[in-house]
Batch of 2 targets.
Target 1
Amino acid sequence: MAKAIGVFDSGVGGLTVVKELIRQMPEENIVYFGDTARVPYGIKSKETVIRFSIENILFLLKEDVKLVCVACNTVSSMALPSIRNYFKVPMVGVISPGAKEAVYATKNKKIGVIGTQATIRSRAYENEIKALDAAIKVIARACPLFVPFAEEGWLKERAVFDVAKFYLAPFKKAGIDTLILGCTHYPLLKPVIQEVMGSRVTLIDSAKQVATEVKQLLATGDLLESNKKAVRDFYVSDDPAWFSGLAERFLGQKIERVSKVSTA
Ligand code: DGL
């Protein structure tokens, strides 16, 4: 069987990236791993996130994937820079594509970044943006409550607006014109975030750019496939039913087969 694109995340959020991979490359096989037994990664230490990530990549390599897409901002910011050197397989993270898109979008050179505590603490977006244009001002803030809201399907409730107003107030005050949604759960809350920030602020959801980079990398290596019946396999480290229940919201379609595995 043709080799698949491997994708992993701490849980279900990476499916927002899978959605875009499927849209841009419908004929590619995909193997997804969501580490639902150990989510969230966003409050864990760098050492732990690195260890979990290596285990997840080793699992995907056993599935003989041709590329690993790290569909998690926390892993991409904390672990990817050091672990990519240990593996031969090409790897694409979500930080650099999102940063590039934001630098391209901003006119007033004021960019906001929201993400998990770990992502914000790592300053990965800030460093990437500054390397592209040192004149850009970056303001960043962790918005940890957005993750459970997205998982609970609370996408428009009053409480979500109140929390979003609280989290986003410093960005409004600073007059940013571009906001990076630096967590794979946040695209689900786009309507609320857009309403709070106003229509003049561009929201950057890196999924599209990530899928474009995956496609380019596969094309360069002559690794693009055209499977008329592409196969998508989903694996999790905890209850498959919980994952399947949430998956449709994140992926926009039902998932047939989800299997439980252990990577540890
Ligand atoms: N997937 C994670 C991210 O994009 C959010 C959930 C977590 O904290 O593990 O940062």
Target 2
Amino acid sequence: MQIFHHIQSVRQELQSQRKQGKRIGFVPTMGNLHDAHLALVKQARENADVVIASIFVNRLQFGLNEDWDKYPRTLEADIAKLRSVGCDYLFCPEEQEIYPNGMDTQTRVIVPTMADILCGASRPGHFEGVTTVVTKLFNIVQPDVAVFGLKDYQQLAIIRRMVQDLCIPVEILAGDIVRESDGLAMSSRNGYLTPEERPKVNQLYLTLTWVAERIRAGEKNFAELEQQAKKKISTVGFRPDYVTICNSRTLAPAAHDDDEITVLGAMYTQGARLIDNVSLSLGNLTAET
Ligand code: PAF
């Protein structure tokens, strides 16, 4: 695996691949890689001739009181993991390379409305930071296809919308959520959980699955279901942020005749904020998790 720190050199290499007619697959990450990231790399491999991952802990998407400082930096281990799944290239720039003029005056990419609800309401400016850096990374890498995990459902929906609105010529693929054996979605932030919390945090997934089952069984009072779901989370000692039943594509509150529904949730533990989601298709009555 070749490693690049500079925009010019990664562009030059990828340009030569493109000239040979190679299809480029891209997996942007913030590092601290686990099996869910590696699954995205494998998916990119199946859909492209060459695969590039990036590792960049993007300060622009962290709020002032968030965990940018303590976000785990595990570059050596990440490189070994990427090599083990046959990733061809890694782009891991310094902050100066991505934001040479600082962040205050950096041009931003904003996806209105969708970025202001759910996680965007609790983390103002977060998605603006994501869409800005992803646009920059897309301009640097110019991938044919890029893969994002479904665990960050809202992020994926916003990126799809951004790509469509800005006519960015990249195909966006969704990677399935990878779960621990008790249902907890894999996440870099699971490392912040205490040993006491760990056995109970799958409550988020259990609750979202319960909501999905109630909807499938015909429950139509979505507001009441959302309230009950938040109570289930509080009962085991966590602070719910939101549980919301959404239209899977627009993320607007689901209407009763929507066929594609996603139940999204977020909750706070002592040291982390965890998110998860469960989708269900009422058209053929099968749940996708
Ligand atoms: O999902 C992430 O890890 C980040 O939000 C991303 C897409 C790499 C942008 O920094």
